[in-house]
Amino acid sequence: MAESVQYYLERMIPELEGLEKKHIFSPVEIKSIIKKRTNFEYALQRRIKQKIDFLRAIEYEINLEELRKKRIARLGTGSDLQYSGARRIYNLFRRATIKFKSDLSLWLQYIDYAKKNKANNILSSIFVQAIQYHPNNASLWIMAATWENEHNANMAAARVLLQRALRLMPENQQLWHEYFRLELLYIEKIKLRRRILGIDQAKNQEDLDAMQVDNQDEDDNTINLPAVTGEDVAQWKQDEENTKKSKKALTKEEAAALEEANNPILQGLLARIIYDNAIQSTADSIQFRQRFVDIYREFTD
């Protein structure tokens, strides 16, 4: 036990030396931190480990991290130490979830902390590990898919997650509803991008109408063009440049969808397939089918 405690304490020496050198914490405070962490480590290294010990250590480190951030902001120094506290917190969560794999609430706290700190680089792996130990928890699959789509901008990963969940739980009605909603959200996103880029025919027609000057006093064979100023030319160039930048930001999947005027995806083909498969996979239920209608209405004008 003593060797393990010493190992973890030695790892924090460079961090504490930096905090003292930058005057973020005083020598007295550094000694207090060392004492607290030593006590926590001995508790975590006991033969019979308890979840409450991990939670207390995590709570202490989170509070310490908040204090460190405030002092760094006030002093304007120590930015090179900004990740040291967070790494220790993530390490404590990792150790806790390894020991208490079946504790879903602990995994949810781990996920929530990573979300609040926008740790997108590790959230995907956290979700994968949590699902590995809780494969029959539909809410966890949905949470992971929602995050992949809305925050990680990875629709393909979101689809894969829900498809795998449905293979495990084909009769879970919540999964079918959320998969249906996911595809409708994707359609809305593509349609919005089309409108922004001016791809919709209606939008193009409005632009053409706006460019025409209807002068009733002129001869029918005469076409009057609007006056073009230097500001107009500059604005058109800027709009064209913005459009090019927007197109570069598209994924290959989105770009293909935007190029197809009658893309079946935009017509709701996948959503209809999901609905048909859902009806075949679950027992007949009016409420189950009605929920699909309610979700669809959320996306209609």
Number of strands: 0
How far is the N terminus from the C terminus?
A: 64 Å
Which residues sit in consecutive blocks of at least 5 with pLDDT less than 50? 210-228
User: What spatial form do the alpha-carbon principal axes imply?
Assistant: elongated
Secondary-structure-based class equals mainly alpha
Kindly give the count of domains.
Answer: 3
Number of discrete helical segments: 15
Query: What's the order of the H and E elements?
Result: HHHHHHHHHHHHHHH
Our estimate of the beta-strand percent is: under 5%
**Sheet with most strands:** none
Radius of gyration: 28 Å
Family: Belongs to the UTP6 family.
Subcellular location: Nucleus, Nucleolus
Keywords: Nucleus, Repeat, rRNA processing
GO molecular function: snoRNA binding
